[in-house]
Write a structure and sequence with these properties.
The chain has two domains: 3-167, Beta Polymerase, domain 2 (2-Layer Sandwich), CATH 3.30.460.10; 195-265, no CATH class. It has a five-stranded mixed β-sheet. The chain starts with a helix and ends with a helix. Helix 5 runs antiparallel to helix 6, helix 7 (192-219) runs parallel beside helix 9 (244-267) and helix 8 packs antiparallel against helix 9. It is of the alpha+beta class. It is built from nine helices and five strands. The protein has helices spanning 3-33, 50-60, 67-70, 84-96, 146-161, 168-190, 192-219, 225-239, 244-267, and strands spanning 42-47, 75-81, 100-107, 120-130, 133-145. The structure holds ligand 0O2. Ligand 0O2 binds next to helix 2 and helix 5.
Length: 271
């Protein structure tokens, strides 16, 4: 195939990867903005390189005519989760979506690969709007934990180094590491709810401090400097207590105080 044709062929896949990654990042932000735990920790994407496509076509005996139907991972998106439990949550978020249709599910969690590889793959149909009109493309979404990702990326580099023929002693080591990853993910699941609580508290505190500082800054326009400094000192004192409930109480009091000032300034405004 001519170079120009490869470019044309791959362009809709580049669009798909960019859009899907940005949509998943938007979901992650939505969780954070609502002070909720996000099952999506990180999202990455890539379009398969021409050499990797050619290699796969050869290995699977795929013709150029069937390339786009049979090579399902030209567009690839990877969703990294903190915990194993998050993987199904992410999968159900994808199944619910109107803008992509899951056409295949490859569950390498329930059916770990011989190599030790674990991950959940969803093959989706996704529509991109090109200058030539709408184009439906396939994309592979790989969902896995951080630990699984660590194993897979390391093993992938070794596959590359040994051109798919990993020596038995290295394979054995990788297999042991895969077992350790499995145990680690299970261990982390035991403390999942505690970790989630801690992360949510930290998000809430960050938001509270930001809102309190904005409120104090606004007070400078309506209250005396001496009074605002006193409030500021009180804020530093409460902050140093490391008590989220105290911080929440302080914000409520601050709101009431600021509201009083706002009412005063409306009352004294000329008609
Ligand atoms: P890259 O560089 O990630 O794009 P296959 O015959 O296994 O190559 P198939 O049947 O189309 O491919 O689908 P499968 O098995 O779901 O694998 C597709 C992708 O999953 C692979 O892409 C890898 O990213 C990942 N994967 C599958 N098995 C393994 C494994 O044993 N180890 C690692 N590290 N990753 C795996 P590509 O094409 O290998 O390349």
């Amino acid at each position: 195939m001519e170079i120009q044709l490869w470019r044309e062929l791959l362009h809709p896949y580049e669009m798909a990867v960019e859009e899907i990654v940005s949509k998943f990042n938007a979901l992650r932000e939505e969780y954070k903005k609502n002070s909720l735990y996000s099952p999506i920790e990180r999202v990455t994407g890539r379009v398969k390189s021409v050499s990797s496509i050619l290699e796969k076509m050869q290995r699977k005996n795929v013709s150029f005519e069937n390339l786009e139907q049979e090579i399902e991972d030209i567009a690839g998106v990877r969703v990294i989760c903190q915990f194993v439990e998050d993987i199904e949550k992410v999968a159900s978020l994808i199944v619910m979506r109107q803008d992509m249709k899951v056409i295949e599910r490859k569950d390498y969690l329930a059916n770990q690969k011989k190599s030790g590889y674990r991950s959940l793959h969803l093959i989706v149909e996704y529509m991109v709007e090109t200058i030539h009109g709408p184009r439906r493309v396939l994309a592979e979404i790989q969902i896995r934990t951080m630990a699984m990702n660590f194993w897979a990326t390391t093993e992938h580099s070794l596959q590359y180094k040994y051109k798919g023929e990993i020596p038995p002693h290295v394979s054995l080591q990788l297999s042991k590491a895969a077992d350790a990853i499995f145990v680690l993910d299970n261990e982390m699941s035991q403390v999942r709810s505690e970790i989630i609580d801690a992360q949510i508290d930290s998000q809430i505190q960050t938001r509270l401090v930001k809102d309190i500082l904005t409120a104090i800054e606004n007070l400078y326009h309506v209250a005396s400097t001496r009074e605002v400094r006193k409030i500021q000192d009180e804020f530093y004192r409460i902050y140093s207590l490391h008590d989220l409930e105290e911080l929440k109480r302080f914000q409520k009091q601050l709101d009431i105080f600021a509201e009083g000032y706002r009412a005063q300034s409306v009352d004294s405004a000329p008609l």
